[in-house]
Amino acid sequence: MEPFIATFAYFVIAIVVVVIGLLVFELITTKYKDWEEIGKGNTAVALSIMGKIIGICIILSFAIYHSETIWDTLIWGIYGVVLQMLAYYLFEMFTRKFSVEAMLKDNNVAVGVISVGVSVGLAFVIGASIT
């Protein structure tokens, strides 16, 4: 495929996967509206969303490097979103002293920062496993 067309196709795939990933995350993981919280200036939720976006894009970049087709990239991107959701649930489960969701809603920036770390760190692990 011609490089300019391929770049545009990957660009579109990235936007679609990120938007769908964020919508699914919001539907199944949060008890609040992410974008409403961001509109209120909730830095912790903004950090959490930032981590998800960067994490998904890291996985997609590894997929682009290692996939032979655009469809492979799309499949890896979707799989990466699923694994990111699993990571979020594990993060919530392992922090038994408090609820991650409640802390994010309460604008606990420390939890937001850790959320970024979990998303980005695991994205590198997931991405590195793509062959």
Number of domains: 1
Number of helices: 6
Q: What percentage of amino acids are in beta strands? A: under 5%
Low-confidence stretches: none
Main pleated sheet: none
Mean pLDDT: 91
SSE-based structural type: mainly alpha
The value of Rg in angstroms is 15 Å
Overall helicity: over 70%
Distance between the termini: 21 Å
User: Could you spell the SSE succession in H and E letters?
Assistant: HHHHHH
User: Using DSSP, what is the number of strands?
Assistant: 0
How would you name the oligomeric state of the polypeptide chains in this document? single chain
Gross morphology is: elongated
Topology overview:
Layout lengths: L2 H27 L4 H6 L3 H24 L3 H25 L5 H6 L3 H20 L3
Helix pairs in contact: 1-3, 1-4, 3-4, 3-6, 4-6
Structure description:
- The chain is an all-alpha fold.
- The chain has one domain (3-128).
- The chain contains 6 helices and no strands.
- It has helices at 3-29, 34-39, 43-66, 70-94, 100-105, 109-128.
- The radius of gyration is 15 Å and the shape is elongated.
- The chain starts with a helix and ends with a helix.
- 30% of the residues are buried.
- The model has no long low-confidence stretch (mean pLDDT 91).
